[in-house]
Specification:
The protein is an alpha/beta fold and 290 residues long. It has 11 helices and 10 strands. Helix 3 runs parallel beside helix 4, helix 7 runs antiparallel to helix 8 and helix 9 packs across helix 11. It is elongated. The termini are far apart.
Length: 290
């Protein structure tokens, strides 16, 4: 297998920017801002504030690169790279491509054999994990959940039995609905942490069961939010009581499954006979709980 000859001499630099405290900016960030031929910024106004705070005067051209123009601007930036430019990509906070613009440009640059490197910087995902007090040896990042309630429940149901710690971003005005949905799907007792305004003046980490966190968020929460949820516990079938079996069936029904299908699925994931789950559902129905 032979290596493909490099056809471009430019360089794409993905630079992490502070998620709160500007003092967290890595020293290399200032160097890259000062020396780049082109700076592609998610918000040029926020970029201006950042360069002023760092005492940097960019020599290169500044262009906007955000969700609305990402598709159209990517080819232009790739041509700059192919022609030898050093292009710096920055987003509003954290690393480009992580729930932010950047993936399209990286993929297009790689396709044209342009070298891509990074200036490591602050990450809300890793910071929230470290502060959460929850297991961090294995985790998965789920980004933002869908805005529509039904789609949100379906997405959560997909990872209800995920053993790894889960990390989500969320808008403050949707946090109460999201935590309530998590409590419904994962169980109100599942441990979680809501990390708000990380590294900023009013940083707060609220830890507790999902049910309690949902009640707390109902009063309203402000700021940038990262939610960390512990993974599903490793427990045997004998530890799943009737109430838990009924709850899992209810979650599946609310997500659109027929009761017969939901009972079969819950029995399979719990390692129980379908009859046992069926009996629990019938008892709950007779008691007016389902």
């Amino acid at each position: 297998m032979t290596a493909t000859p490099r056809t471009a001499s430019g360089l794409l630099v993905l630079a992490g920017t502070p998620i709160g405290d500007v003092a967290d900016a890595p020293p290399r960030l200032a160097d890259e801002l000062a020396g780049a031929d082109v700076i592609a910024a998610e918000d040029t106004r926020r970029l201006r504030r950042l360069t002023q705070a760092l005492g940097v005067t960019p020599k290169g051209r500044v262009v906007s690169y955000f969700e609305g123009n990402e598709s159209a601007r990517t080819p232009e930036l790739v041509e700059e790279l192919v022609n030898g430019a050093r292009v710096l990509l920055v987003t509003d906070a954290g690393m480009p491509s992580v729930s932010d613009p950047g993936y399209r440009l990286v993929a297009a640059a790689v396709e044209r054999d342009v070298r891509v490197t990074a200036v490591p910087g602050p990450s809300a995902v890793l910071t929230a994990l470290a502060l959460s007090g929850l297991p961090v040896d294995r985790f998965c990042f789920e980004g933002f959940l869908p805005r529509k309630a039904g789609e949100r429940l379906s997405r959560l149901r997909e990872v209800a039995q995920e053993r790894r710690t889960l990390v989500y971003f969320e808008a403050p005005h949707r946090l109460d609905d999201t935590l309530a949905a998590m409590a419904e799907v994962f169980g109100a007792d599942r441990r979680a942490a809501v990390c708000r305004e990380l590294t900023k003046t009013y940083e707060e980490v609220r830890r507790g069961p999902l049910g309690e966190l949902a009640e707390w968020a109902a009063a309203g929460v402000r700021g940038e939010i990262t939610v960390v949820v512990t993974g599903a516990p490793e427990r045997g079938a004998e530890e799943l009581d009737a109430a838990e079996l009924v709850r899992r069936v209810r979650v599946r029904e609310e997500a659109g499954e027929r009761r017969k299908e939901a009972i079969a699925a819950v029995a399979t994931e719990a390692g129980l006979p379908k009859r046992e789950v069926f009996d629990a559902v019938v008892a709950a129905k007779n008691a007016g709980e389902l």
